[in-house]
Amino acid sequence: MYIAPLKSSRQGWRHGFTLLEVLAVLMIVSMIMVLSIPAIKGLTSTAGMSTAIRHVSSVMTLARSHAIAKRTIVRFGIVTAWEDDSEAAYRKYGLWEWDRELERFVSFQEWKTLPPGLVFEKDRGDYLRSASYAQKDGSSVRGDFLPTAESESFIEEVRSGRVKVVFFEFTPSGGARLPGGEERNILAVVINGYVDSLGGGEIVYTDEGKKDWTQFNIDTLTGRVRIYRP
Which residue has the higher pLDDT, 22 or 86? Predict the structure, then answer.
């Protein structure tokens, strides 16, 4: 019985790839990488926004609970200027409670910081009114906005310099108030962007920009925090 000899596998590999084949593979890999970059950015942005929602809402909930439990006033504050930290503006936030003995507000929690690429919006934007939730319920975008240039603020002294903070307060009854505010709701928005410290402190929106954001609505009567997404 005759059995045909097997061809050596080494002989098949001896010829290798041609330069044209290598270039074709490299082009395909490059195209896949280029097409996947927007998707990767989108995933990163979504993950960062999800993290921000959890952290900000939990801090607000803590502030309300602390105000009720301690029968005191608790401030939720957003940094708008940090003397020696240009990246802190509209990214860092924290809590302060009224100390009866010292007769002043004192911080009782470490500073919190939004994930990279996210900031608190500086003022109410027109894009909020075009959101699907605003079209269904116009009252969802009505309220006093934090922060704005007109918001009351205080100065916090830290080791690295003076910090300017705008705020709203939770009261012992569980409600909320924005000093000088007149609306039923207090609004705050986290959006994709960064503060241009060299360009007058304006917010520069990233690729996601005004396509994706999170709106927090704080009911002044109940202190309830509602979350809206476009």
Answer: 86
